[in-house]
Design brief:
- The chain is mostly beta strands and 183 residues long.
- The protein has one domain.
- It is built from 2 helices and 10 strands; from the N terminus they run E-H-E-E-H-E-E-E-E-E-E-E.
- Strands 1-4-5-6-7-8-9-10-2-3 form a 10-stranded antiparallel β-sheet, covered by helices on one side.
- Strand 2 and strand 3 form a beta hairpin.
- Helix 1 packs antiparallel against helix 2.
Length: 183
């Protein structure tokens, strides 16, 4: 027998202003990781080529590593009217779902923010981006998993990016990168 846990839609209307400020979160993570000498173990694939690296960046390096997360930040005031916000509950998570309703205004098609149902701590962020123009097409899925330290401080545990890019007159290239934060 196969069963699927259901998600229940919350009918409460929520203000968009509750969207997570990813830029602020990234800046906090950069300071924490560089001050506490964290590193990253990363496996990247571009087409058939694979590379595995482990390094311990300084604050500039961490900023570069985490910059991709800023690209899915939809909390900026100019973007608020382009997204619809809904809330769901799963057996383990409270999920805030922001979906782009005015295409062409943003590259981020959706963003999901998962919070632990028992503690309300940030657990995961998922986002999908897409760019389409006459000479270039690309898309990527981004997932950031968090863990909690000192009972209430979320820190990034892992980052996953999978995507493709297609430039006119060239083959589509697929890529992926999975990074695990290490100490």
């Amino acid at each position: 027998m196969l069963s699927f846990p259901s998600c229940r839609k919350n009918t409460e209307v929520r203000s968009y202003q509750e969207a997570l400020d990813l830029e602020g979160l990234v800046n906090t993570q950069v300071v924490y990781f560089s001050d506490n000498h964290y590193g990253i173990h990363k496996r990247s694939c571009l087409g058939q080529k694979e590379e595995v690296v482990e390094h311990y960046p300084d604050s500039a390096g961490w900023s570069k590593q985490l910059d991709i997360l800023k690209t899915v930040d939809i909390s900026k005031p100019g973007l608020r009217s382009y997204y619809a916000a809904e809330s769901y509950e799963s057996p383990s998570f409270l999920i805030d779902y922001y979906v782009l309703i005015d295409t062409g205004r943003s590259n981020t098609m959706y963003q999901k923010i998962f919070r632990d149902k028992l503690t309300n701590h940030l657990a995961r962020i998922q986002a999908k981006q897409r760019v389409d123009n006459p000479i270039y097409h690309s898309g990527r899925y981004i997932e950031i998993v968090f863990r909690t330290i000192d009972e209430d401080i979320p820190i990034i545990d892992s980052i996953k990016v999978e995507g493709y890019q297609k430039i006119i007159f060239q083959d589509t290239v697929f890529y992926s990168s999975i990074g695990k934060i290490i100490q």
